[in-house]
Each structure stands twice: as structure tokens, then as C-alpha cells.
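Reply to dn_fold:

You asked what the input looked like. This is it:
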Amino acid sequence: MGASAIAQGLFRETPEPTLIGGRNRDTGRIVFPCPDDAARWEPIDLPRRGTLWSWTVQRFRPKSPPYIGPEAFTPFAIGYVELPGATIVETQIVGADFDSLTIGMAMDLVTTDFAIATNGDAIRLYAFTPATEA
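and this is what came back:
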């Protein structure tokens, strides 16, 4: 069985995964994900570490479609992580007890299995987890 990203062009899955943002060629504004307009947006690697800007817990299974996660639903944290000098990204938060999350804490980018495709391949998602080192 293989694995694939939930959507093309969101991140590179390397030993140290990287989100792919976009920098506006005229204004320098940085966004995530990179818009599909190469004339106006230049793809850039976003910082791998950021700070938790806000978060909440998803305690019920989202409507399907578009949600494709497992039928056996487990609550998960979802939040916004501010990437220094870049932008704020919406993300799932993994590897943390909900009670340990605090606004302003350092977070690191990771990738995680999200669902299983009909062909049996894992669908991968980017996420953030509390940083373990300064």
C-alpha cells in the first residue's frame, strides 16, 4: 500500500516536511496554500515552526462529504498556527492532550495519516504538534 497527500501542492513530504506557500510577485504578500497562478504567485517554503494562535476541539464527526475521515470518529484539535514572517495556517493539531494546549506555544510541522483511500492507500495530511525543543 502507498500513500498520497490529501491535495497536491500543499506540502512536500520529506524527512522534514515543508508547507508550500505562495508569495505574490507584486506585493510580497504570503499566503497558504499557493494559488494556482504562476504569473502572480511564486511558490515558497514556509517555516516549519510557528506559534499556536488559536484552537478548538472538533467533538463531532463533520458532515460527509467533504469530510473523508474514519467512520469511528475521535475528537481532534484544530487551530491556527502563525508562521513567523509568513502567514497563519489552519491545521489539525496532533500529539497533544487538549488540556495542554496554550495560545502562544511553539508548534512544529509534521505529517500524519488522515484516512484510507478506496484503493487502500493512506491519505496524508499536514498537521502541527507541540515543539519538543527550543
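The beta strands are 3-5, 11-12, 18-24, 30-31, 41-45, 49-58, 76-82, 88-93, 106-116, 122-130.
Hope that clears it up.
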